[in-house]
Amino acid sequence: LIYSPSDLSSHSSCKHLTQLNKKLANGEIEKPEVFDNKVLKTLQERGLEFEAKHLQELKDTDKSIVEISNEDPNAEKHTAGAMKAGTDVIFQARLKEDGKWSGWADFLKKVDTPSELGDWSYEVWDTKLTNDTKAGTILQIGLYSEQVARLQGLNPEYMGVIKPEGEEKYRCDEYSAYIRLVKRNIEDAIANEYDTYPEPVAHCDICKWWKTCNSIRRNDDHLTYVAGMGTAQIKELKIHDVDTLEKLANTALPVPFNPEKGVKETFNKLREQARVQY
Predict the structure, then answer these.
(1) Is the distance from CB of 168 to CB of 133 less than 8 angstroms?
(2) First vs last Cα of the chain: how many Å apart?
(3) Are 124 and 144 in contact (CB under 8 A)?
């Protein structure tokens, strides 16, 4: 398995996803059925348009620009060559690390900080439509920055995100330890077998394995299908051996426990909701 930096956010929150991808790569399970997510497709198209707009803005300046093709079998070599030549901007830079990580950085931008390349070095910049930078974005550009550091013999001081409202910089050193931790966790999940369960996470909305995991939760009568149920409430109910919608529906009312977190009335309402659904 070769993982891209964009996998960091999803895999760090769900070992089950890592196990599924590993089984698919080993031929143990079949490829999941692809469902058409029109909203996601539209967002991807808008993201590419925003990226192209920024590229054009750079072209309208006097900066030298090298564009790396996704179809280029020597993309990694050409990226390194453009860095050594001191190109101002490298678009879709191909970066690899130890045969484990592989990806395409939106932009590498030259800065006036000396490195092994010469009197310059590079910083990673990524385009995102959202104005709220997510942890997954920091992990992604942070890992790209590690690979850039290997090529130029110097850790970039900054990495950045280009958003509709402007640019935002982050100091690489402030996030490096967290990035190394997440990488180790993912590599550990790949190297070892774990008994995992597809607990719902935010990534489920765009995951290719959604139907597979959803069917497991449906068959198990998972508490997540109780309308209004949150992760914190599920954890509390499991403490009291209530781990299915049916069990919650048949729990006494008022509920026979005082929650460690939250108020009892919340669980009374959830119990009634489960009864109606059941």
Answers:
(1) yes
(2) 42
(3) yes
